[in-house]
């Protein structure tokens, strides 16, 4: 009985403290961040401008988006009829994974594979964009003076 | 008195700003005064250099320019201007994407974006130019220094910098008793006419 009362009191005290503190320094939890961005991309009235702004902003954060955010973003691309933007975002995520791309990117593709198959989204590999298509070859890959 | 530089460019930018200003004033004033509600103006008049391209987003700073950057993957305008072929592709993209072939998807991508991210990040050999320019600058500096030493800094030395003159100066300072407490004359023994031994 006593413990229940104490639990309630402590709960109210800690909540109040939290509220007071968050007045000066609101700290968003990771869960709230993910939910916020997932709901941002899931909003039915999202337009192409906001979709691109969201992608650009996400690309600037010091984190890697959860697959559920990526799925929401790809569904928004489908809703707004932008297949090239979906492919572009997957490329951008591969770049964002940095030196760990060979671990993170396949994991991401594996996580979002159902969505890719459902919406028929082409990954960069499907379009041959994982290798430079129009860029010059590296000199170390050239076989001769006319091989470029 | 004043020269008009590149009048067409000036005219274009003036047109752009005057149209934007007109739009703002028209939006600020009551609609009844103008007799219509919406202010319509053509994109080609406001952004003459964008052409027929669709302005689709914010880009990096809100200016409708195209650029490729991996940290900002969505530029503000599409790469290519709208053509009937691209419009047909966009209509097709409104349906099921499994109906689009790989070539069509690639064509649509290239209409929206100039280069893929792997093309952006591909090595372009620019480091060779940078290293070459750096070495050329260092080489030019060394040769320039050599040239200045040999050709410019050749004025005759002053007479006062010769060893004989300095010896005469020292002799005179000792004769005049310069620094007799702690300076040079305090180290001179005037009785024997030699330097003091400690």
What report would you give on this structure?
The complex is a heterodimer of chains A (148) and B (198). Chain A is mainly α. Chain A has helices at 2-24, 30-42, 48-60, 67-79, 83-96, 101-119. In chain A, helix 2 packs parallel to helix 4 (67-79) and helix 4 (67-79) packs across helix 6 (101-119). The radius of gyration of chain A is 22 Å and the shape is globular. Mean pLDDT of chain A is 85; it is low at 13-19. Chain B has 198 residues and is mainly alpha-helical. Among the domains of chain B are: 123-155; 159-195, no CATH class. Helix content of chain B is 48%, strand content 2%. Chain B is built from 8 helices and 2 strands, in the order ααααααααββ. Chain B has helices spanning 7-28, 31-34, 43-46, 84-93, 102-112, 117-120, 126-152, 163-176; strands at residues 188-189, 194-195. A two-stranded antiparallel ribbon of chain B has the order 1-2. Chain B is rod-shaped, with a radius of gyration of 39 Å. Mean pLDDT of chain B is 84; it is low at 1-15. Chain A binds chain B through residues 48-49, 51-53, 55-56, 59-60, 78, 81-85, 87-89, 91-92, 94-96, 119-122, 124, 126-136, 138-139, and chain B through 56-60, 70-74, 90, 93-94, 96-98, 100, 102, 105-106, 108-109, 111-113, 115-119, 121-125.
Key terms for this structure?
heterodimer; A: 148 residues; mainly alpha; Serine Threonine Protein Phosphatase 5, Tetratricopeptide repeat; 64% helix; 0% strand; globular; B: 198 residues; two-stranded antiparallel ribbon; 8 helices; 2 strands; rod-shaped; disordered N terminus
């Amino acid at each position: 009985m006593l413990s229940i009362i104490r639990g309630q009191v402590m709960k109210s005290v800690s909540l109040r403290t939290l509220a007071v503190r968050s007045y000066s320094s609101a700290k968003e939890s990771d869960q709230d961040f993910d939910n916020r961005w997932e709901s941002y991309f899931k909003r039915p009235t999202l337009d192409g401008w906001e979709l691109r702004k969201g992608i650009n902003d996400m690309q600037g954060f010091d984190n890697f988006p959860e697959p559920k955010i990526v799925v929401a973003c790809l569904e928004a691309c489908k809703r707004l009829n932008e297949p090239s933007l979906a492919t572009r975002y997957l490329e951008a995520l591969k770049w964002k994974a940095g030196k760990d791309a060979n671990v993170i990117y396949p994991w991401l593709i594996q996580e979002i594979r159902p969505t890719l198959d459902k919406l028929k989204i082409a990954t960069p590999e499907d379009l041959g964009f994982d290798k430079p298509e129009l860029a010059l070859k590296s000199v170390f890959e050239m076989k001769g003076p006319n091989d470029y | 008195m004043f020269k008009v530089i590149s009048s067409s460019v000036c005219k274009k930018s003036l047109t752009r700003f005057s149209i934007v200003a007109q739009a703002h004033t028209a939006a600020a004033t009551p609609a009844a005064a103008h007799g219509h509600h919406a202010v319509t103006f053509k994109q080609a008049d406001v952004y003459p250099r964008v052409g027929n391209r669709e302005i689709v987003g914010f880009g990096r700073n809100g200016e409708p320019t195209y650029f490729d950057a991996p940290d900002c993957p969505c530029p503000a305008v599409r790469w290519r201007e709208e053509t009937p072929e691209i419009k047909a592709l966009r209509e097709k993209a409104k349906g099921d994407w499994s109906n689009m072939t790989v070539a069509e998807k690639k064509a649509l991508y290239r209409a929206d974006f100039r280069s893929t991210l792997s093309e952006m990040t591909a090595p372009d050999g620019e480091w060779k130019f940078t290293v070459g320019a750096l070495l050329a600058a260092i080489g030019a500096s060394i040769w320039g220094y050599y040239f200045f030493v040999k050709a410019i800094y050749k004025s005759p030395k002053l007479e006062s910098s010769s060893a004989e003159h300095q010896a005469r100066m020292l002799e005179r300072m000792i004769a005049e008793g310069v620094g007799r407490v702690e300076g040079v004359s305090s180290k001179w023994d005037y009785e024997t006419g030699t330097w003091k031994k400690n």
